[in-house]
Amino acid sequence: MKTKNHIRIKTPAEVDILRKAGKILSSIIAELKCSLTAGMTTKAIDQNAEAIIKKHNVASAFKGYRRFPGHACISVNEGVVHGVGNGRVVKAGDIVSIDVGIIYNNYYSDTAVTVPIGQVSPEAQKLLDIARLALCRGIEQARVNKHLSDISYAVQSCVELHGFSVVRDFVGHGIGRQLHEDPEIPNYGKPGEGPLLQEGMVLAIEPMVNMGTHRTRILDDGWSVVTQDGKPSAHFEHCIVVTAQGPEILTGE
Ligand code: MG
User: Fold this and answer.
1) What's the CATH code of the domain at 127?
2) Could you tell me the pTM of the whole model?
3) Which domain holds residue 228?
4) In angstroms, what is the span from residue 216 Cα to ligand 1's centroid?
5) Phi, psi of 150 (to 5 degrees)
6) Does position 234 have pLDDT exceeding 60, yes or no?
7) Domain tally for the chain?
8) Is the omega angle on the peptide bond into residue 207 within 30 degrees of 0, that is, cis?
């Protein structure tokens, strides 16, 4: 079923599959998160992701997606999103974003978390806390008869209130039988705009929050997105379904 905005409304049976996919993915990301330690290369983190995904009998949604080389996206410090695992060694004091997508039973699920390695600076910890809070603020708006941009506005307001900036160049998205479905979900904007949210919409909400400028650039690997000013960035993502009772997080712990 499609609305005029081409947003696919999921049937209860599809939501059940997406719920199972989300549960598997949250176990995968929890396991991957626990395996992170100082001294690992981002390549080794990616290899761990590959092994954990395989153990759960699902496929990576990212490996080979538009020729993406990794099994997960691993973005360190100034890395915003789409980081490619390489020889970079993760150190104590770094923040590492791990973004994992899977395909389960022909449906996609997508989640990201940014993890402190050892003791991080108070500023970095605040960035993580506010990015996570902004995700919660966005999710709270995912209710029947709210507008799509109410999510965007809630995220941006939370982030800017605390003196950080939201990335404009990359956005959240609908998800289901495709990794990226309509609608695009910017992390900025005025409230009360865009399509009305309806029961059965499944959304990947993913604030990318920068300590400095919101501007980004892409490295020579063609994938890794970093902040233009080299300051740190944090990324958190959950898939949610809009229900009559409010938002239900599909990729929660
Ligand atoms: Mg995503």
Assistant:
1) 3.90.230.10
2) 0.96
3) 12-249
4) 17
5) -65, -30
6) yes
7) 1
8) no
